[in-house]
Design a protein that fits this description.
The complex is a heterodimer of chains A (about 525) and B (about 425).
Chain A lengths: L4 E2 L13 H23 L6 H13 L1 H6 L1 H13 L1 H7 L1 H9 L17 E3 L8 E5 L5 E5 L6 E3 L1 H19 L4 H23 L7 E2 L3 H4 L2 H16 L1 H6 E4 L2 E4 L2 E2 L8 E4 L2 H5 L1 H10 L12 E8 L10 E6 L10 E7 L18 H12 L10 E5 L2 E7 L19 H19 L5 H13 L2 H33 L15 H7 L8 H8 L1
Antiparallel strand pairs in A: 2-5, 3-4, 4-6, 7-8, 9-10, 10-11, 11-12, 12-13, 13-15, 14-15
Helix pairs in contact in A: 2-17, 4-5, 5-17, 7-8, 7-15, 7-17, 8-15, 8-16, 8-17
Chain B lengths: L1 H6 L8 H20 L4 H15 L12 H6 L4 E2 L21 E17 L5 E19 L4 E11 L14 E15 L2 E9 L2 H9 L8 H4 L6 E10 L5 E8 L14 E8 L10 E9 L1 E2 L4 E2 L1 E10 L3 E13 L2 E18 L2 E11 L9 E14 L2 E12 L1 H6 L5 E11 L1
Antiparallel strand pairs in B: 2-3, 2-19, 3-4, 4-5, 5-6, 6-7, 7-8, 8-9, 9-10, 10-13, 11-12, 13-14, 14-15, 15-16, 16-17, 17-18, 18-19
Classes of the chains: A alpha+beta (about 525), B alpha+beta (about 425).
Chain lengths: ~525, ~425
């Protein structure tokens, strides 16, 4: 035994030395931890724990943006602070944390399934659904945001959708809790019903103008009506562009009086020069080829201020020549920087797509009723960034919670909307070649207790909607307490290089309130 | 040995490496039988020497080799007696040149995994991977000062992200990088990226990091290294050690987010260091920490009972955590019972059971129980091979929160360390 050697090579034996002058401070280090621990515990002990958690979770999710684009993230957080629904839109990271971390019991369910991981929208809240115009010119209600889309457990999508619907209902008709319950119940029944149809092999439904969902639903009808109106007028051309000597160009500066933070700004030269190359690559990703010469780049500008969740991402508006030489058929597309979904990596293999662009293309075309539901939707690389490009058109209307007023509000209207969107979500989960098999697996676990499934999701949705409304207030307090960096320390090394800094740009200075009011008048 | 190789007739397709490994195994078996026929202590000592002759690099030495050539061969490494193994073992096994040692530690594996949804739907996946690639260099400038740097390979895009460095390439980062001063024999103070105290204790007691990291690390409740200052004092006459660390608290893979510093104090006592109970130890540590931008509480209490022998190593560790990741109010438990045996030299067996209670305070139960069983064999001094199986069973809530938690794995692993 004695001749065996140890796994590690310890330092050779040394003669004892007297070095008390070093030993004393060294021994102090052994005591220092306990003193330091007292200091660590003292900080933050009086702050609402949930407020702390909200700030920490959002800061962790946005860390790279906070470090590299602090001005843009400041605009995003101010926008999230404006309304509870904006907060919901910008806080998908918090929802996922609540579902996954165990810090709350919101993730518990009798109907969870780890497998299969189904095509998922990732963030299916109301405003991520809207009208898309297909290649044949027809409009249909489709999911229209795939920033967070990936393969995920079906229940996360269902619960995000249900809780967003409950929150929208409570926001549009406050104090009508029974109404919100009816809305979510209808949505869940719509989901289950559509899923069972897919499990039996029934073809997925397309929610077009002629479908029952459109004719019987005030919210969807409103979308189609406004889309028709704006399509005729090509409002997007009027809003974003102007004619100079017969040539259409983007306006520069503020273009929306109601939104002083929305600004079109010039692109840096290098970035503008690479736009045609990006457009060329984008064309190869499209479901259908564009007509010859229909993708010539006429102009491009940096867009600030759009959206909420992806507000700090780089967006560029590109003006493309239409099929004719007339400026009236020019097309505007929006290029937006893509990032990871934030869901992947659950268990091996963990990733199901080769790049963020492939992720968006694969998921969107599976989720839509037809692959060419938005024929301009594709992916590209630009300035080393993965990006998506889609048509920017006034007729592609999204559901807006702010418009759930008057005859577009109330439990009956929202119930029908919820039923439609629930069915649409089921269609997404059952998409692809494995779709019917996925639908059968999900249907089986629900079939054990169909009413229990609906009841559980309704209970969750109402509880989480309450939590979201309360969390909005906490987020506002956290912003006041920690600032828009949410506690991320400043480090000069985080500043991007000159080229990238020019590309990111700076958020436009928001005019003083008086000037803003004047503009709005 | 050489003759054995020559006379060992096998099909030509068999590689030279396999022929050599089989020959070594046959020789080992003979030595094992011999060892059990002799009085235990003498036999084990002789056995170790004999084994050291066997486990030399190709060409294998003859059993009749001269004593000079025997002395030149590296001795067989065995677990350290009465203490934990180093947290990273690269560059700890050789004497080096001029006080400077360089080394590697590489885990390579083939893993087959079945993931269940608890409803009869099972998906499988298999992959080759390198869970650990360490390169290290360590040097003693004098009796007083030493330095150590360990770099490790990691995936550039974690958690299934698509956007990393050159796709999702393996890239290198610093795992340890510190300078240390030893003002007197028993005390070492180090600063830089230093190993912490609790996770290395658990890993170093089990010495089967190739099979799984410690429960504390696997559950995300502890980091094996951090940026900070560490002091470790060896107690007299082998009674154990005590140490303290003041560090950022975010682990070595992240920058500091807050002004609060994390303090860790730990002690390991060996109550009977002079007899057969030398391997018996009691371990306790407390981490008073803060995590994230808002200094969420991250305190951990860990206690453990360990047996750090050479043939048998075992331990039971219990950690209670106040604060998990960004939630300062979440409380969790990580408990682990483990055993590692070397019934015969070259042969290693290990078993472990972990229970990770993800949320102690709110129902329903939120826990994942995982069990491992592993067997390994030393093919040659720096090369070990293992086969390991594991099974993880979550509660219903944990299954909903952690998709893929219910799983079984079968892995074949190789480990090279010198």
């Amino acid at each position: 035994m004695g001749t065996r050697t140890a796994a590690s090579t310890s330092s050779p034996r040394r003669k004892p030395r007297r070095r008390s002058f070093v030993a004393i401070p060294a021994l102090t280090l052994l005591v220092a931890p306990w003193a330091a621990s007292l200091l660590a515990c003292a900080e933050g002990s009086t702050v609402d724990a949930r407020e702390v958690e909200i700030a920490a979770v959002i800061a962790a999710a946005d860390e790279s943006l906070i470090r590299s684009r602090p001005a843009l993230i400041d605009v995003k957080y101010r926008r999230m602070a404006e309304t509870p629904y904006n907060f919901l839109r910008g806080s998908i990271a918090l929802f996922r944390n609540d579902m996954r971390s165990g810090s709350t019991a919101f993730g518990a369910s009798r109907f969870a399934l780890a497998t299969p991981l189904v095509p998922s929208l990732g963030d299916p809240h109301l405003e991520n659904f809207g009208l898309l115009r297909a290649a044949d010119g027809s409009l249909a209600l489709e999911p229209n945001d795939f920033d967070a889309a990936d393969r995920a457990p079906y229940l996360w999508d269902v619960r995000r959708f249900a809780s967003a619907l409950a929150a929208a209902s409570l926001i549009s008709t406050p104090n009508d809790r029974d109404g919100a319950r009816r809305v979510v119940t209808a949505a869940m029944k719509g989901y289950v019903s559509a899923l069972h149809r897919r499990a039996k092999g029934v073809a997925p439904e397309r929610f077009s103008r002629q479908s029952d969902s459109a004719t019987q639903n005030a919210v969807v009808q409103d979308l189609f009506t406004r889309a028709d109106r704006d399509a005729k007028q090509r409002l997007e051309l009027a809003e974003y562009t102007e004619l100079r000597d017969g040539v259409r160009m983007f306006r520069r500066g503020r273009f929306d009086p109601e939104d002083p933070e929305s600004v079109l700004a010039p692109l840096p030269d290098r970035a503008r020069q690479l736009i045609p190359q990006a457009v060329h690559q984008w064309q190869r990703s499209l479901a259908l080829p564009l007509p010859e010469g229909a993708a010539e780049v006429l102009d491009a500008v940096r867009e600030f201020g759009g959206g909420v969740a992806s507000l700090a991402r780089i967006r560029v508006l590109i003006l493309l020549r239409g099929e004719s030489d007339s400026p009236d058929d020019d097309v505007i597309v929006q290029l937006k920087e893509l990032v990871d979904s934030g869901i992947a990596g659950l268990f091996p293999p963990g990733v199901y797509h080769g790049s963020p662009g492939q992720r968006v293309i694969a998921t969107s075309r599976a989720a839509w009723s037809r692959p060419d539901a938005e024929p301009f939707w594709g992916a590209t690389m630009w300035m080393g960034l993965p990006c998506q490009i889609r048509r920017e058109a006034a007729d592609q209307k999204s559901v807006r919670v702010a418009r759930l007023t008057g005859d577009r509000a109330g439990a009956d209207v929202l119930s029908r909307l919820g039923e439609t969107l629930g069915a649409l979500l089921a269609r997404v989960h059952a998409a692809g070649s494995d779709g019917p098999a996925h639908a059968q697996t999900i249907a089986r676990v629900i079939a054990n207790e169909p009413d229990g499934f609906v009841d559980e999701q309704v209970q969750f949705a109402l509880s989480y909607a309450d939590q979201t409304l309360a969390d909005h207030a906490r987020f506002v307090r956290a912003l006041a307490r920690y600032g828009s960096r949410l506690g991320i320390p400043y480090d000069s090394a985080d500043a991007p290089g000159d080229d990238f800094a020019a590309l990111i740009g700076s958020a436009p200075a928001v005019p003083a309130k008086a000037a803003r009011d004047k503009v709005n008048q | 040995m050489k003759n054995a190789c020559i006379s060992f007739r096998q099909p030509r397709a068999r590689t030279r490496f396999v022929r050599h490994a089989v020959a070594l195994a046959r020789a080992g078996l003979w030595q094992w039988l011999l060892a059990w026929t002799l009085p235990a202590n003498a036999a084990r000592a002789d056995f170790a020497i004999a084994q050291s002759r066997m486990l030399t690099p190709t060409p294998a030495p003859s059993l009749n080799a001269s004593s000079a050539s025997i002395a030149a061969q590296p001795a067989l490494s065995l677990p350290p007696l009465g203490r934990a193994a180093p947290p990273t073992e690269a560059a700890t096994r050789s004497q080096g040149i001029g006080g400077v040692r360089a080394g590697l530690e590489v885990f390579s594996e083939y893993a087959l995994r079945w993931t269940s949804n608890g409803q009869g739907n099972v998906e499988w996946f298999h992959t080759f991977d390198v869970p650990r690639v360490h390169g290290a260099i360590e040097g003693n400038y004098s009796d007083l000062v030493r330095g150590r740097v360990v770099i490790e390979a990691v995936r550039s895009a974690s958690e299934g992200a698509l956007m990393g460095v050159a796709g999702d390439s393996l890239v290198f980062r610093a795992r340890e990088a510190f300078g240390a001063v030893r003002p007197f024999e028993a005390l070492e103070v180090s600063a830089g990226v230093v190993p912490t105290l609790t996770v290395p204790e658990a890993d170093g007691t089990w010495m089967m990091r190739v099979v799984a990291p410690s429960a504390l690390e696997a559950s995300g409740l502890g980091a094996p290294a951090d940026l900070g200052v560490k002091a470790r004092l060896e107690l007299p006459r082998g009674y154990g050690w005590l140490g303290g660390v003041v560090a950022n608290g975010e682990g070595y893979a992240s920058r500091e987010f807050n002004r609060g510093k994390t303090a860790e104090g730990a002690v390991e006592l060996h109550p009977a260091p002079n007899g057969a109970l030398l391997p018996l130890g009691l371990f306790a540590s407390y981490v008073a920490g803060s995590a994230g931008t808002v200094s969420a509480r991250a305190d951990r209490w860990t206690s453990g009972l360990v047996w750090q022998g050479q043939a048998v190593r075992a331990g039971a560790f219990f950690t209670y955590a106040w604060g998990v990741r960004q939630s300062g109010t979440q409380q969790a438990i990580a408990a682990s019972a483990l055993v590692r045996v070397e019934p015969w030299v070259r042969v290693i067996g290990a078993a472990r059971v972990d229970v990770h209670v993800r949320d102690v305070t709110t129902g329903p139960a939120d826990a994942v129980t995982t069990a491992w069983l592993s067997a390994g064999y030393r093919l040659a001094e720096p090369l070990e091979v293992y086969v390991a199986g594991s099974r993880a069973v979550p509660t219903a809530r944990a299954a909903a929160e952690v998709p893929g938690a219910e799983a079984a794995t079968l892995r074949v692993m190789g480990r090279v360390v010198f």
